[in-house]
Design goal:
The longest helix is centred in the N-terminal third of the chain and has 36 residues. The protein has a single domain, classed as Chorismate Mutase Domain, subunit A. The radius of gyration is 16 Å and the shape is flat. The chain has 107 residues and is an all-alpha fold. Helix 1 packs across helix 3 and helix 2 crosses helix 3.
Length: 107
Amino acid sequence: MSLPEIRRKIDAVDEQLIALFNERADLVHQVGEVKRAEGTEIYAPEREEHVLRSLVEKNRALNGRLPEKSIRGLRVILARTMDDVLAAALLEAKTPRSRLRGHRVDA
């Protein structure tokens, strides 16, 4: 495969990633709305650790090229990004950001 072909494939994957990130952001927004309505804590550390372990295991099962350290790093970036989405949802609902309890949010 030529370099331009590889780059086109990378561009296509990037486009898919953006669509998936936006889909995930919509779902995180919905989680925030449900948790706000139910009055439950938004931050769920046990859920976050479960998700991380699951991603590492899935990567291993796929014989993925990503080392665990990279998966953890990507997960941190994704969690912070989704925190911003949830914070925006809380602002729309006039819910105090302090309900984030320092940050992580996950579905």
